């Protein structure tokens, strides 16, 4: 009795192992088929958002650098 149930559980594990890539591929194909290219208006809005992000991070980096330079000169100059 126990060997039969063990064989069944092994077969189920093997079946799950084989089904995982199939399900992943199927879900991936559904996702790709559902995706659409953005129209010009949506593309421009995405570009604006990315540009604003670049500008914000650039400004933040510039401010951090401006604060870091005098502090570094004070610490290094004092030695």
For this entry, give a set of tags.
single chain, mainly alpha, 2 domains, transport
List the helices and strands and how they pair.
Layout: H1 2-34, H2 40-78
Keywords: Endoplasmic reticulum, Membrane, Protein transport, Translocation, Transmembrane, Transmembrane helix, Transport
InterPro entries: Prot_translocase_SecE_dom_sf, Translocase_Sec61-g, Translocase_SecE/Sec61-g
Transmembrane segments: 43-64
What's this entry about, in short?
With 79 residues, this protein is an all-alpha fold. It is 91% helix and 0% strand. The longest helix has 39 residues, at 40-78.
3D architecture notes:
The protein has 79 residues and is mainly alpha-helical. The protein folds into two domains: 1-35; 38-79. It has two helices and no strands. The protein has helices at 2-34, 40-78. The protein is elongated. One of its GO terms (molecular function) is protein transmembrane transporter activity. Its main location: endoplasmic reticulum. Keywords: Endoplasmic reticulum, Membrane, Protein transport, Translocation, Transmembrane, Transmembrane helix, Transport. Belongs to the SecE/SEC61-gamma family. The chain crosses the membrane at residues 43-64.
């Amino acid at each position: 009795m126990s060997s039969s149930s063990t064989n069944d559980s092994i077969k189920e594990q093997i079946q799950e192992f084989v089904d995982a890539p199939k399900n992943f591929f199927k879900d991936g194909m559904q996702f790709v088929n559902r995706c659409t290219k953005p129209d010009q208006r949506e593309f421009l809005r995405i570009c604006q958002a990315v540009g604003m992000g670049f500008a914000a991070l650039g400004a933040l980096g510039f401010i951090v650098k401006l604060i870091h330079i005098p502090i570094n000169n004070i610490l290094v100059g004092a030695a």
